[in-house]
């Protein structure tokens, strides 16, 4: 239903200026994103962040890192993408751009080690003997190991006195460097790009929190005390709800204790579909035979997939090679995807 609804609005060109589309959960957001990608819109997905006010956020580390990565992309994008977000992610103010800034290290750079250690502490990195997970850093003589958020592999930085002599990736399993030397790397905060004053002020607020969290520090509770360092993402944006969500919002404002005003989510709801409806795809050749007078678009990952579906005569059929899944039918066109859903793998 929601795919056909969004498809129809894109086809009618009624939402070209839409900046934010709000849905119920991650499953809906991914389905809607596929429709937007079909119409070649640049799309940015926010994760489904379901924490309650003053929850210990360490169990939500993965969602927070995904959210901060998405925000960083949004803030730095010259042309803003269409953001699709589950509604619970927008119930709390989100970090301003300055909290997500990065710093760079490059080959042959002179590094003030004391100042760098302090910055990494204020940026939320955990100091350890051996780096194993994102957000950890270790200092061993002239070697710095750091695992920045959303990096596939951690970095090893070799120093000669105060000069960076080499930067390489290394593996967690064997703790050995891999690949070619790297000229420059961007280091993002493990949490927030705070200075000393901001870090100490936030730490005091966390310690004085009424949360029942066993640990009361910036990593566990800092998000709840960003205060002037955060803003509601909804602010000043052209936004729509993809469906009515009054009941869901009422429940969330009781359970999650949102810090964003309830009336900020009193938004227009996307118009219901009139012409298009979603399509259950079973036998593709039969569908093509029945709807041969309509404009047909087949979505597939590759040419082999098209042949495996017993589609050999493609004259008059539009073929789109893409991983997206969109199956809709209207009065004059039909869109069929040969792709199947793939379960999302969670990061370690």
What does this structure look like?
The chain has 348 residues and is an alpha/beta fold. Helices cover 26% and strands 21% of the residues. The strands form five sheets. A six-stranded mixed beta sheet has the order 6-7-8-9-10-11, with no helix packed on it. The chain has a five-stranded mixed beta sheet with strand order 15-18-19-16-17. A four-stranded parallel beta sheet has the order 2-3-1-14, with helices on one face. The longest helix is centred in the first third of the chain and has 16 residues, at 61-76. The relative contact order is 0.16.
- Integer count of domains: 3
Rg from Cα:
24 Å
Low-confidence runs of at least 5 consecutive residues: none
Instruction: Give the helices and strands as they follow along the chain.
Output: HEHEHEEEHEEEEEEEHHEEHEHEHEEE
The major sheet is characterized as:
6 strands, mixed
Query: Quick one: how many beta strands?
Result: 19
Q: What would the average pLDDT be, to the nearest integer?
A: 94
Strand order across the biggest sheet?
6-7-8-9-10-11
Instruction: State the helical fraction.
Output: 25-40%
Percentage beta strand: 15-25%
The backbone outline, from C-alpha atoms, is: globular
Coarse structural class: alpha/beta
Report how far the terminal alpha carbons are from each other.
Answer: 34 Å
Helix count equals 9
């Amino acid at each position: 239903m929601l795919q056909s609804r969004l498809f129809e609005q894109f086809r009618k060109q009624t939402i070209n200026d839409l900046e934010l589309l709000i849905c119920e959960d991650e499953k809906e957001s991914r389905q809607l994103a596929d429709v937007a990608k079909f119409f070649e819109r640049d799309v940015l997905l926010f994760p489904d962040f379901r924490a309650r006010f003053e929850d210990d956020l360490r169990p939500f580390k993965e969602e927070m890192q995904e959210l901060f990565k998405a925000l960083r992309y949004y803030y730095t994008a010259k042309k803003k993408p269409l953001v699709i977000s589950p509604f619970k992610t927008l119930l709390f103010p989100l970090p301003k751009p300055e909290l997500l800034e990065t710093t760079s290290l490059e080959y042959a750079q002179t590094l003030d080690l004391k100042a760098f250690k302090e910055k990494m502490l204020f940026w939320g990195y955990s100091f350890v003997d051996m780096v194993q997970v994102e957000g950890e850093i270790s200092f061993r003589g002239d070697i710095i190991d750091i695992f920045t958020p959303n990096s596939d592999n951690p970095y090893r930085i070799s120093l000669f006195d105060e000069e960076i002599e080499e930067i390489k990736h290394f593996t967690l399993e064997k703790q050995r460097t891999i690949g070619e030397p790297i000229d420059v790397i961007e280091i993002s905060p493990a949490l927030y790009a705070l200075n000393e004053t901001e870090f100490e002020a936030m730490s005091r607020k966390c310690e004085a929190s009424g949360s029942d969290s066993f640990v009361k520090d910036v990593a566990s509770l800092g998000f709840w005390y960003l205060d002037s360092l955060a803003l509601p993402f909804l602010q000043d944006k052209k936004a729509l709800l993809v469906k009515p969500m009054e009941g869901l919002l009422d429940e969330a404002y009781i359970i999650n204790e949102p810090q964003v005003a309830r009336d900020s989510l009193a938004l227009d709801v996307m118009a219901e579909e009139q012409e298009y409806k979603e399509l259950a795809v079973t036998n593709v050749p039969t569908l093509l035979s029945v709807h041969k007078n309509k404009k047909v678009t087949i979505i597939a990952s590759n040419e082999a997939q098209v042949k495996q579906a017993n589609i050999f005569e493609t004259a008059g059929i539009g073929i789109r090679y893409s991983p997206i899944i969109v199956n809709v039918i209207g009065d004059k066109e039909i869109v069929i995807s040969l792709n199947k859903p793939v379960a999302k793998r969670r990061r370690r």
